[in-house]
Structures are given as C-alpha cells and as structure tokens.
Design brief:
Elements: H1 3-19, H2 27-31, H3 37-56, H4 63-73, H5 93-106, H6 110-115, H7 117-130, H8 136-154, H9 164-174, H10 182-197, H11 213-243
Domain RRP12 N-terminal HEAT: 41-200
InterPro entries: HEAT_RRP12_N (IPR057860), RRP12 (IPR052087)
Protein name: RRP12 N-terminal HEAT domain-containing protein
C-alpha cells in the first residue's frame, strides 16, 4: 500500500468518525474524490448535522429518517417558503440538495415517495422556481433537485399520470430541457430519461410506453417550433436591415 492509498484510507476513517454516519447510501460522500473542496466540506458538515439530529431523536439512520430530515430542512412553515428564509445558511443548500439526491435515488423506496409525493413535490417545485439558472450557486442546487423531482415522479404508478397535478409537476422538469446551462440541461435530460424508462411498474410489458411520452413529445415539438420562429424572425430582420426596403 503506497502513501496515497494510506492517505485515502485515513481520510475515509476520519470522515466516517466525524459524521458518525453508517447509512451505506452516503458511502460515496466519504470515499469519493472531490473536485470541489468547498462543496465537500459543506456536504460533510450537513451530513454530520443531519446524522446528529437523527441520533438525538433516537433514530436508526434509516433511509426514511434521512429523507424526512433533509426534506424538512427546506420547509420553514406551511405558508412561508422562501429560498432566502430557510432554516440553514444559503451556502449549504447545494450540499443539502446533493445529499437529498443520494438518499432518494439510492435508498428511499417507491412506496414512501408515493406517500409523500404531494408535500415533497411542493417543496421541490418551489425551490426550482426560486432558483436562477444564471446564478452559479443556484446551478449547484438545480442539478440535484431536478434529479430528485425526476425520482419522485418515477416512483408514481402509471395510473397517477392521468392526474393533472402529476403532469403539472412534470412540466417543471421539461422547462429545463433546453436550458442555456449545459449542466442544468443535462440533469433535466437525465430526470426525463429516468421517468420514461419505466414503461410499467410491474415490468410485465416492455412495449408499453410511459404515460408521459406524449406530453414529452408535445413539449419538445412546441420548443422546436418556437425556436424555428425565432430563427426565421431573426433572419428576416437581419436581411431587412441589410437590404433596406427592397425586401
């Protein structure tokens, strides 16, 4: 074992001891190589705080407990939910969103996501609409939140997609599929693909299309038409300016 391996193991041991976290869903947090030291520090700090909160309440560090705690961080009061008035400093929001993505995608069962759909979707949608894709900090929040919302929708039964409320939530993901920021756009694409990949909840028919396919295609077609109109108008304007009144 070389020095680098020993150093890596030492950090893993240290991080595990500091966070006191034993849930395997967060193993990646401790063992991965981070390109962003500041985000790593925030993630470890938030994980430490959340784990301590669960321990203080006599919890067992189950996926449900982490899910409930991380979601509740974003929830201030039923009537007042503002990004600037949340329970923790805004600098830790990307870390909280990242941890929520991990636990939702790796450990939270579909049954729990279906049971908490209305409240969780309300919180995630509010956060998405409160963020700007032009803000660097908000981009770090948007990316995991889009994946979280996609995971929440993926867990819903096929029959649920006949409800306007579910289709309405899905539109918030579709809004970002042509976002100017590549990383945000890619996250929305991943969320959409994860949803549409589940053709049927029981997996008995591989040829069944997801109920959201039509809505997805319709949204893309509208976006293409709008883009084509913009291109046509821009081209016409340029030609008019160049050629004067002869056009």
């Amino acid at each position: 074992m070389d020095v680098r391996d020993r150093s890596s193991l030492s950090f893993v041991s240290w991080a595990t001891n500091v966070t006191k976290c034993s849930n395997p869903a967060f193993e990646k947090v401790i063992s991965r190589v981070w390109n962003n030291p500041e985000l790593q520090k925030d993630v470890l700090a938030v994980l430490t705080g959340v784990t301590k909160l669960i321990h203080d309440k006599g919890g067992t560090e189950s996926a449900a407990e982490y899910y409930a705690t991380l979601v509740s961080i974003y929830y201030n009061t039923p009537k007042v939910m503002k990004l600037t008035a949340l329970n923790t400093p805004s600098c830790t929001k990307p870390a909280e969103a990242y941890l929520l993505k991990l636990i939702m995608c790796q450990a939270v069962p579909d049954s729990l996501l279906r049971a908490t759909f209305a409240e969780a979707a309300k919180i995630l949608v509010h956060l998405l609409t409160s963020c700007s894709a032009m803000d660097a900090t908000h981009i770090s929040i948007l990316k995991p939140l889009l994946i979280c919302l996609g995971r929440l929708l993926r867990a819903q039964f096929r029959e649920s997609w006949s409800l306007e409320s579910v289709r309405h939530i899905y539109r918030y993901i579709l809004r970002f599929i042509d976002c100017e920021k590549p990383t945000v756009r890619r996250s929305s694409h991943i969320a959409v693909c994860n949803i549409l990949h589940i053709a049927s909840n029981d997996g008995t028919d591989e040829n069944v299309f997801h109920p959201a396919c039509h809505q997805t295609v319709q949204h893309i077609c509208v976006s293409i038409r709008q883009e084509m109109r913009y291109v046509w108008f821009s081209t016409f304007t340029i030609v008019t300016l160049l050629c004067g009144n002869d056009v």
